[in-house]
Amino acid sequence: GFKMGIVGLPNVGKSTLFNALTKTAAAQAANFPFCTIEPNVGDVGVPDARLDKLAAIAGSKQIIPTRMTFVDIAGLVKGASKGEGLGNQFLANIREVDAIAHVLRCFEDGDVTHVEGRVDPVADAETIETELMLADIESIEKRMQGLVRKVRGGDKEAVQQERLLKDALAVLEDGQPARVVEVAEDDLKAWKMLQLLTTKPVLYVCNVGESESVDGNEHSAKVAEMAASQGNSHVIISAQIEEEISQLEDDEAVMFLEEMGLEEAGLDRLIRAGYELLHLETYFTVGPKEARAWTIKQGTMAPQAAGVIHGDFEKGFIRAETIAYDDYIACNGEQGSKEAGKMRAEGKGYLVKDGDVMHFLFNT
Ligand code: GDP
To answer: Binding-site residues for ATP, please?
Structure first.
């Protein structure tokens, strides 16, 4: 599955957000299976209204959303790259995630201490990014030393790695994150394997005050500006409100959201933003037993999409019977889609599209 790491300075609302994400009534209901793997790791159902509609048409007994994993990575402070706070251990945790949700304190509250004694989310973002850049520099220098002998011996992979590490180092020493390096197609795989912290996509989470979760405030406006200039995205959330909503039953939560003037829970927006950040898409399998959502990377071919369900589906792939989501709804299900000629037989070269309802045929 895909993993999103929640990072940020102390006291910005990371734990509050993580608790809200993993403790929601919805997350615990049968429809949104949830489990905590470790205290700071939570598996969250990805909300998708389409799945409910498909299940209603097919009369599916069970609805199983696709999931995303959140990891609460506390302990990142100024000096972390030099081993301050819980330092390197946390940097190692970040290495393992696919993307970073960077929580920024945008709320004013005299009762909650700010580590720097002032609310300035743009400066906070720079503090954390600087630590990540320093950590990258250190790890690059170590790795280059480790490569010296192999490079001298003419090892092709080592030569490629060294070249990429040098490209990254040049950018980092210039005070920029490694994600600005333009990587050639042929180098992409090796580049990803370097697992540099500052190549991970970032989603800024503006934690605003309770009354500001619709439009944000002056702090979140500055974060929005910064995010846009970096090509990163941002969401506005009040972690405290989300935690309150997470305690409510579904119908109560809907009423509460209406009262607040919110169309949907901020957590749903956050999860979806993470999905977009990672260029993920969803396809569905629908039957009387269950309606289920599956996650793929954009641009995945049918056999590899089938492989998400089971490796054998990919190995023995014959073809996929496919109905686009809109057709499935318009034709009121599989039978209607078939009759209308909307069910397609697709082969190995088919690029699965977001919302496709798939049925795989395979050899065992
Ligand atoms: P962490 O150190 O980043 O995990 O921060 P916590 O989630 O533990 O939050 C630190 C403190 O800030 C706690 O006392 C929270 O109740 C409080 N807090 C978190 N989010 C908000 C918010 O949106 N508004 C206000 N006023 N306080 C918040």
So the answer is: 11-16
